[in-house]
Amino acid sequence: MKITQLRIQNFRSIRSLDIYLGDSTVFIGPNNAGKSAILEAIRIILTRRWGQRGTGFTEHDVHRPGEEGDPKTLPPVTVEMIMEEPAVGAWDADMVAALEDIVGLLRDGRNKIGLRVTCAWSEEKEAFEPAWQFLNPAGEPLPEKKRAINLSNFFDYMKLFWLGPLRDSADEFTPRAGHWGRLLKGIRIPDDIQADVLRKLEEIDAQVCAADPRLSQIAEKIGEATQVAIGDGPGGARLNTMPMAMEDMLARTGVVIRNEDLRPWLPLDHHGSGLQSLAVIFLFQAAALQQIAESLEERPGMAAVFAIEEPEAHLHPQAARSLWSRVQGLSGQRIVTTHSPYFVQHVPLHDLRLVRLRNGCTEVMSIPPKIVSDLPWNASVDGIVRGGAGRIFSKDPDTGCVVAQHWFDETLGDQLTNCYRRDAEPEAKAASVAALRYNCRTLPSKEDEEELGFHGRRVRGEIFFARRWIMVEGVTEHLLLHALGKALGWCLDDHGVAVIDFQQSGSAGIYPALADAFQIPWQMIHDGDGEGTKFRKQLLDRGFTEESLRSTVFSLPPPNDLEDQLIADGHEALLRQILSERAGRSALTCPLDEFTARLKNKKTLYMNILALRVASDPELAEKMPAPFVQLIKNLRDGVL
Prior knowledge:
Layout lengths: L4 E7 L2 E7 L3 E5 L6 H12 L30 E8 L8 H6 L5 E2 L5 E12 L4 E9 L8 H14 E6 L5 H4 L5 H8 L5 H20 L2 H17 L16 H6 L4 E2 L8 E2 L5 H26 L4 E7 L7 H12 L4 E6 L2 H4 L7 E7 L2 E5 L5 E6 L2 H8 L6 E3 L5 E4 L5 H9 L7 H15 L5 H10 L1 H7 L4 E5 L2 H13 L9 E5 L8 H8 L4 E5 L3 H13 L3 H4 L3 E3 L6 H7 L3 H12 L8 H10 L1 H13 L2 H5 L3 H11 L4
Parallel strand pairs: 3-12, 3-13, 8-11, 11-12, 18-19, 18-20, 20-21
Antiparallel strand pairs: 1-2, 1-4, 4-6, 5-6, 6-7, 9-10, 13-14, 15-17, 16-17
Helix pairs in contact: 5-9, 13-14, 17-24, 22-24
């Protein structure tokens, strides 16, 4: 059992959110955008922070649209959790039986549990009062009796393991700390070993105390207190340097670590912050695994939910990269927040949720798991699915309409359109197919994921933290754009703009699709040659329309690439001088066609030098190829 959907209303910076959660869900975005609020809503509900000392919510948790809002009169906090069975029979039968009063059935036979928690001001009690309601599959509250009977059972089967971002090993590795203390209490030492260990400890204690007579003198003096306090007979005292019971010994358990064989063993708090933070994470994992194992023995089907904030805290980039595999290996549902582009590099695209604050309210953007159309399923659709389109199309169990799992090209679009050629309104169906293609452009295919995994890993993490994307063909355009930004008073880095050289990092189609999915503004500039034409076709084939590309995709004048355009704009002499300084004096006198070929063969070499000159010379910057200059000016002046 896992949380498949989370709805939050009027909680902190969240006005209204409806979020789908998978086996792993990673929330990314700027500070104070609402990532922690999402995890805190889950934490409050699943840890049952209710009772006489508080409701789990406070007046500061109520969403306030302005400074003057009174939390007592504003709409209440509402959080709904939906748990849907992934397939018929996937949930443990004993668990379903134990929760039968709150389990509902969907149309396709899958089980579903809904839970709603609200918190509103009670005039009668003069406090913020919570209310719990289990929901039927239609979202309506179940009778109160069923809620009362199954509340404890529900929490027995939904266990939350939460790890906050502020991890202090000095606090976490103490007997009173939750995870460490629970692990120590679970240790069982056989009686014969306990007796042997305690006997040896007594012998060691006696040796230590006898080693210096001053220890005996101290004990004798302290023992005089018993004569005064008790008075019934002689007492005594002795110093104890060893634990007197196995529980005392375990309570003193600490962690010592060394980095390499030749390094000394040192207490954990003598190591760096990164290693201490990692130690807490692995402590968290060990404690969780122990509790899960114990719970599963009593309740098969029990689900673990791991809510982890910023697991990469204090780690160097390579450690942050490798940490994802550790998080993914946790045996339960993983809900994570992060600020690390290195951690994000290995996260599947469908698992990312981009959180941002807009007009004072938290928004969450993600790639939808599927697109449901208004096209009715018929025998012809069934035929193309059997013919190989089954990996893309399926039938929606609720509406009976066509569902698409990822984008599809114009050829398959024509096949789908033909499925409705005998329909009463074939033109309307053709328009619906076109709309479906356009809507599906944001759904990456398996091939997209593999391509980005190989080519785009170096930029994938960074770009999701940017406010805008500019896509160019290669590194020369990348360098030129950054130089123009500095020269024209609009530094791209300062304004959160990521420049993506898509030829080296994936394809022309995938990045615009991702940008649209995550609602990140984007522009693209490509060459005017055959390659540029090919890139534009990739976008159209994916489902973009000419109209949608008109304000986002720009081209150099055909048939020029960047080097052709620089020469056409009158920079031949400057480029010959630059190339001669690095590749030989012959660049000054060789024929133009030979020089152009050499320039295209030394792209990074010449652009490194040209970009430095452009960045420091606004007059030269104004004379660079017009599509690049105009794009920077439009961004600077707020036109885009």
